[in-house]
Structures are given as structure tokens and as C-alpha cells.
Amino acid sequence: MTIRKVRDAVLLSLGADLPGSVFKSYSASSGDSYAVVWITKSRMDRSRYSAMQNRDVFTVTIHSVGADEDSCLWVQERVDRLTNRTLAVSGRRVWPVEYVTGRPPDLDDDGPNPLWFSVSQFDIISDPA
User: The organism sits in which domain of life (predicted)?
Assistant: First the structure.
């Protein structure tokens, strides 16, 4: 459940910068400038003095898509604003989003309408509230 809550918090946050242009999959996307969000979770158990505490790390990968290189970079600039934001997730204490890495724009000409895409990747660390 938590992974979906974190994904939804990312979608909500990015939706403020890219209204109507942030999606959970390519099949749900529309238009020629948008972002697609994927998330995965790794879990680290950390010891505390009194008991074990579960700290979750969520890695978010986002494709920024545009009809040309400039529109792709325009989307990526808005996606990268996610860096240092503190998302609200019920039941979790969430640390500010950390930018991990990215890839420059590349042309995807496999489909009927060639599109440019670039990649940004972030880590979100959270503890139980």
C-alpha cells in the first residue's frame, strides 16, 4: 500500500508543475509533452536502541517526453523540481526527495510519431510515522 501512496504523492506534486501531463504509464498518456512515473521500493532494516525500525527507500524513475528536444527538456526541467520537495504520505515520515541521476534527451522513432525522451531518477526515503 505504501508504494502506491508514495507514487500518488509524486504524481500530485508533479501535477502542480505539469497539469494534466503526468501519468502512471505510456498507455495512459496523451499529447506530445508529458511525464511518465515509475516507482520501486527497496527496504532497509535499521536498528534502534529499543526496537527495529523499517526505513523504506523508494526509487522513482521518470521519463520526460516531448515532440522535439526543447519540449522534452522543458518537461524535464519541471520534473527535476521534485528535488528537495518533502512529500506528504499518510503514516510515513518522508525525507526531502533526492536527485540521483538523469539521462539527456534521446529520439525514440519506433512509433508512428517520433518523440524525444529523457530520464530523471530520484530516491525518496521514509520512516514509519
Answer: Bacteria
What DSSP letter does each residue of 94-109 carry, written as one string? EPPPEEEEEEEEEEE-
Please, which residues have CB within 8 angstroms of residue 26's CB and are 6 or more apart in sequence?
36
Domain ranges of the chain: 2-128
Residues facing residue 64 across a β-bridge: 35, 118
Length of the chain: 129
pTM, two decimal places:
0.89
**Distance between CA 9 and CA 76 in Å, rounded?**
18
Q: Please give the single-letter amino acid code of residue 54.
A: N
Selected from 3.30.2000.30, 3.40.50.1240, 3.90.230.10, 3.30.360.10, the CATH number assigned to the domain covering 2-128 reads: 3.30.2000.30
> How far from chain centre, in Å, is Cα 85?
12
Contacts of residue 53, Cβ cutoff 8 Å, sequence gap at least 6: 45, 46, 47, 127, 128
pLDDT for the residue numbered 44? 72
> What's the farthest any 2 CA atoms get from each other in the chain?
59
